[in-house]
Design a protein that fits this description.
Layout lengths: L2 H9 L9 H25 L5 H4 L3 H24 L14 H16 L6 H6 L6 H20 L7 H20 L8 H26 L3
Helix pairs in contact: 2-7, 2-8, 4-8, 5-9, 7-8, 7-9, 8-9
Amino acid sequence: MNTEDLIQSLSSDVRPVRRYALGCRIGAGMIGGGLISLLLVAATLGVRLDLFEAMRGFAFWMKWTYAISLSILAIAATARLAQPEILPLPWLWLLCVPVLLLAGIGVGELATTPSELWMALWLGQSWMVCPWLVLGLSLPIFLGLLWSFRRLAPTRLRAAGATAGLAAGACAASIYCLHCPEASAIFVLTWYSLGIGLAAALGAIIGPRALRW
């Protein structure tokens, strides 16, 4: 059998892929994992009692916008890396934008706060547990993405694992906002980002093994 005949025989029964199959597959994994993380927050940590009041203020939307903007960019990168062909990611630098904007808000906070209160502003009341809670809440979402990848074909496994972990961590941080009472930008920039970074690092470590096909 020559090469052309072999290719023809292998491709004769291949079904066409639906146009939005990639997005649906990744979305299903993230939504499933996100619902589990949401239930974990409600059942173990508890939704803050003043949530509706907090949603009228700037601090809640600052945290939520930071987390959700990182997650959107990370999901887009994950979708690119889930495909076998090497697609460029020239817009990946946009991940720096929400970080820099939040840093600017944090500098403004420090400028208007007496220096003796800077440490309290930075550490808040939950700095020791915040990154670990974000990391823990990211695990169901990351597992959902691993399920999504079972029918996908990534070739850059470490990069795909890292972006999947980043997406899971950022989504987990947005869910954690429902519980977290902290209102400082410098707190969010440090401890939320640390939790998200730990999730990305975990994805980069696990990716080469868990995403192999």
